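so i finally got all the pieces together for this one. its two components total, 1214 residues if u count the protein bits. some of the lines might not be protein, just check the labels. i wanna see the whole assembly predicted at once instead of chain by chain like last time, that was a mess tbh
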Amino acid sequence: MAKENTVIKDRLEKLRAAMAKNGIDYYIMPTSDYHNSEYSADFFKVREYFCGFDGSNGTLVVSQNFAGMWTDGRYFIQAENQMKGTGVELFMMLNPGVPTIAEFLFDNMKDGETLGFDGKVISTSVGENYEKKLSGKAVKYKIDKDLAEDVWTDRPALPCHDMYVLSDELCGRSFKEKLANVRSKMREFGATAHLLSKLDDIMWLTNLRGSDVECNPVALAYAYITFDRFVLFVQEKEVTDEVRAYCDKVGIELKDYHEVMNFISEVKLDGNVLCDKRNTNFLTYKTLLDRTKEAGVLLKNEKDPTEIMKAVKNDTELKNIREVYLKDSVVLTKFIYWVKKNVGKIPMTEYTAAEKLDGMRAELPGFIELSFPTISAYKSNAAMAHYEATKDNAAEVKADGMLLVDSGATYMGGTTDVTRTIVVGEISDEIKKHYTATVMGMLNLASSKFMEGCTGRNVDTFARMALWEMGIDYNHGTGHGIGYMLNVHEGPHSIRWRFNEGMHEAVLQPGMIVSDEPGVYIEGSHGIRIENIVEVVERETNEYGRFLGFDHLTYAPIDLEAIDKKYMQPKDIEKLNNYHKMVYEKVSPFIDDEDVKKWLKEATRAI
Amino acid sequence: MAKENTVIKDRLEKLRAAMAKNGIDYYIMPTSDYHNSEYSADFFKVREYFCGFDGSNGTLVVSQNFAGMWTDGRYFIQAENQMKGTGVELFMMLNPGVPTIAEFLFDNMKDGETLGFDGKVISTSVGENYEKKLSGKAVKYKIDKDLAEDVWTDRPALPCHDMYVLSDELCGRSFKEKLANVRSKMREFGATAHLLSKLDDIMWLTNLRGSDVECNPVALAYAYITFDRFVLFVQEKEVTDEVRAYCDKVGIELKDYHEVMNFISEVKLDGNVLCDKRNTNFLTYKTLLDRTKEAGVLLKNEKDPTEIMKAVKNDTELKNIREVYLKDSVVLTKFIYWVKKNVGKIPMTEYTAAEKLDGMRAELPGFIELSFPTISAYKSNAAMAHYEATKDNAAEVKADGMLLVDSGATYMGGTTDVTRTIVVGEISDEIKKHYTATVMGMLNLASSKFMEGCTGRNVDTFARMALWEMGIDYNHGTGHGIGYMLNVHEGPHSIRWRFNEGMHEAVLQPGMIVSDEPGVYIEGSHGIRIENIVEVVERETNEYGRFLGFDHLTYAPIDLEAIDKKYMQPKDIEKLNNYHKMVYEKVSPFIDDEDVKKWLKEATRAI
């Protein structure tokens, strides 16, 4: 039997005492902050605190005589290890016979019992699903209490970092112009007020930035918009003099972040309220729902108008993005050269290679932060979807096989993302076949021409065709939108093929930028991903309508050592040669070292 | 001023008298039978009777001092001509400033007035749309009265033709087996009764056929299904002794077609009722809605379970379909030879060419009827989407340009559909370019390999890629499902690319058959369409999942005189050559005439 984990057991006992005090029979702790951000700060790691499991996905459910943690297949082994001796039961999601949390609660909760959770860290869809699944039971809810407040004594503080202001010149549109567009959409929806909870949307709209979420240049914030007010809720300590002066000037009314719930509980409603359920936490949404009912107005659940405005980049943003991607591409090109030159000659691990690349990026003028933790995966590690090398646990990179590097940064002028799989030694014919098909997929999508009205579902298959012909697929989307000095993953558009009834799809529009990243992952052997970022552009408008296409934003060589022409049609070869010609033309002027330039010439040669 | 059309004016006066008698202020006459069939019989041509316009789409609205007819752009000129002197106003749908019918009624109807129509010829979605758009007005409805009954004295009878029975051997599944599957879906949906209104679904389920709708081998029918009854409503006169004996044997309870409304108004409901809104007329749906409310049960609006069962053909159906398509392909091949040999030498019009082909098909054993009126369009006529040559109005086919022929038939063993565009003389380089891209599109889709889970929206672009690259599109879907000895157009699957929020998509499954018919239409110059029917098949199942593809069902030569290799990649040429090799292998054994065989060899040569 595993040794008892008295630390966790002690914490759980304290939690149970708090539950009893608050009249809560079952308490749920998920993995999210108040805004469903991609990364949660330490303050929000309540689930980890009470069960020991620190993976990126897990939900802990506790009652007086039960504790269970639900996670997905990526984490079964890790969770089992980390929760040893805690008495917390592991529920392996999607395994046969394993109930969902809602099913478990339905089977175990008794009429009259109370389900509790902090409704600020539960998304509205999850909260509504609990309510729906438990609707046959006389269950009560307590959703406004974060029990960790009382129990977790050495809890880290809520992230709180200085905000900063981006100039209108850098943003291409002033806050005032953007706000006018949002208000015009509010009018269209028949709303006189709009609560916006999505952090990157608030940052985009205000031309402000912050640093409260890892790798996302955003501050924790809410915005409440009417036709004569714009109230921004942020932590007072984050508001620098510069930010305050800017807000005064442009008419942003500042209130403390922690006041938002009181505010929406009390503010006078003189018309319908626009609020996007997908982006608003359960407690906030429910509060607004009650308030609007009370006031005899409607809560209009419509897409945040900022979402599409943010996704379609303006001319200034596009100009800056193109420049930033080029300088980022130059760094990556130099890094590829460095890897190829030094592999087998100097000590190199996945971790030190990533450190090298991160350091090169950090030296660029305008560098702010990485846009996500660099993925550096050698050989078969690259086949693991969520592999993460750490300083102490990283494979040595030898002169054999390939190194996959997926990386990016946010600079003044844009956020980047790029993946290259670098040949560092001998590779098999099978790898070359897979590599060639991956490259063909990336270029086939990037060079496609399609009619306006297409969504990512229409064009995804262009990237998969060559792989599907070989009976290979990759188990991830082909592309995601990317923010402007914002989150590296943003919607509403994406490039995915799978159909889900009632799913939302966004039509591709000129000015959107999107990733194009097919891959091949062979467990225990190798992983390949080639990712360029492309910009949607107009190609032609004629009697049939408007034809769109993509322009590359990423210019970095694709490893010709892994290309086998026998799998390519003349047109495929032409696409690769054209791309490499552009890479050399764009990148070489920024390469001073003659050795690197010479190598680049060779690395981008026509085949 | 146009000469008065006293015939129409007189009819309208009689209609207005009937309206007054029935307390109806506005009366709507659309274009549909009781089952929203693709073709309406003469009995249903009420709109034509009261305004003179006989196009395939139009809705007439009449009040005491107004008559207006709404139609789409295909018919503006025709409608104007046919309605001259009738006093009926033409409303050009989708033209700027032209109100929809609902908008017109909203603007013109007064509170307290009554809107009337025969709710049996209005689809539920259209009816609900009227109700929704007029919800701000105190408008009353009278939807159970077909005023033509009183006014149209020489009205043609409701179509009434003998039904017939297909053997279980021919259908692959007995009625009993199919019914068990339907009942099992009813259980899943929690329904104890199911009203089925869709004619081809009823025919498929019962293994019966009829001839009440042009080109569709269906009888006018309803089916009411519970766990212990199967009631089939058909016109008594259609029930032959054979049909009656079969129904007795398999437990089909026969009732007269005209009894259905009484039946559903009176039948005891002891549970929820399953009824697919999309396939049920407004009056029937509303009646059931009232009945279920009254009985305290639910009307479950779910997809008819028969829809997907019918679409996925069973092994027997597939075996027969393959044979029927081959014999149909042989006929088409011989016809192509006949056209090419005789053009410019004997008198030939679009109409006589179609007659020749129809006659050749009619001679085949098992021929039942054409699956749709043959489209035969010469040169620029082929660019018109809805061109129809008639005996008296058909272009002469000369030894110049191309003839497009889209045709098919229902035989014992399957329903076919195929298009070939035949070179009959000189064609331009531009035509060759367009023709080559169309063929590449057809073959590219047909030879694609894709993952299970794809719908038509994922693969449509395979057929368009080559055309889109040239900045050309076709303004129709790429593919539709096809019935088994049933309608030439059937769902739920299709191959289309356009996105509509909330649209229904069906995943492609092995056993489905679907058309693959890209085209190019240049107004005033030429029209090209190449259509093969393909069968969805499994290609491979491995660790990534199940890969599907298509097998050709159609084997007829593609005109090499219009192919220009310079637009093709080696892979495209290989696809064409492989297809032609199969065409020769499959078709030539059925060609006795050595001249034809020799020609076919040449027509299917590798290029």
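The mean pLDDT of chain A is 96.
The interface with chain B takes residues 448-451, 453-455, 457-462, 465, 468-469, 471-473, 475, 497-499, 502, 505, 507, 539-540, 542, 544-545, 547, 569-571 of chain A (CB under 8 Å).
anyway lmk what u think
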